[in-house]
Amino acid sequence: LLIFFSAFTLSDYESKEVAFLIPQSSVYAGELLHLPAKGEYLIGGKKASYYNGRQFAVVGLSKNKQIRITKIIDRKSSFYHRLFGGKIYRSEHQVLEMKRPKLYKDNLLRLPASVWKKVNRQDKIQQERNKLRKILNTEYANDDLGCLQYPIESVRVSKFAAPRTLPNGYAYYHTGLDLRSRSPEPILSMGDGKVILAEHMTSPGNMVIVHHGKGLVSRYMHLSKIDVQVGQQVKKGEAVGLSGGTGRVEAPHLHWEIMWKGNHANPEHFVPLWNRHCSPT
Ligand SMILES: [Zn+2]
Prior knowledge:
The structure is a single chain. The chain has five helices and 22 strands. It is an alpha+beta fold and 281 residues long. The strands form five sheets. Strands 10, 13, 15, 16, 17, 19, 21 and 22 form an eight-stranded antiparallel beta sheet that branches. Strands 1, 2, 4, 5, 8 and 9 form a six-stranded mixed beta sheet that branches. The protein has a three-stranded antiparallel beta sheet with strand order 3-7-6, covered by helices on one side. The structure holds zinc ion.
């Protein structure tokens, strides 16, 4: 009986492949996508955000080679679907090739042995990941998203999406942008928002996370000092702490991340493109 009923709880999915839902055939990992103002779009299953008469989404930095853009045409619910929570979708979709560097086991992080000993604690890291997942999934309503700025004026020391390997052989992509900061200096919030995390974690060290609304979040890591508290409202350009070298670092620097609904954006592309369409608050 259980098997019989569970068949009805699955969503039925009718989708037609469309050549150009958006006028491009490939995307870069971490790219900011602008979508037509009308229609409901899903990017890798996540609903696009509406801001300033446009819709936007961020292509994340996954190990997948493709990403699917879906436009919902129609949702229908039958009696059984209503009862068990499922839905029938009719949609159009386009599959785009995701461009990103090759993940090779090279580029070993030159972590001092004392740092590696401190941060190689998988049990603790897993607990922190679970906590982060919950925090990053919270919503924060903010219609005046405004324009964005860099957290410090400095030079890049490591690119977004650079392949890296930990001393234990684990290869991964760099999920943020590293900016040089040899001595402690104020780290400024990239935009208006609300602090949703301000604490020490194993790999990020002292970390501040600011939610800017519309699914957009920024993270500032390896700080020597945290100057804000959870729940605090911050303005664009307001200091959240001082740069430093806490957590998993070779040397002091700022690791800065921009995320949209858990998808990592490339800050160097995201900020200039965003600022072409933002309205100052
Ligand atoms: Zn980094």
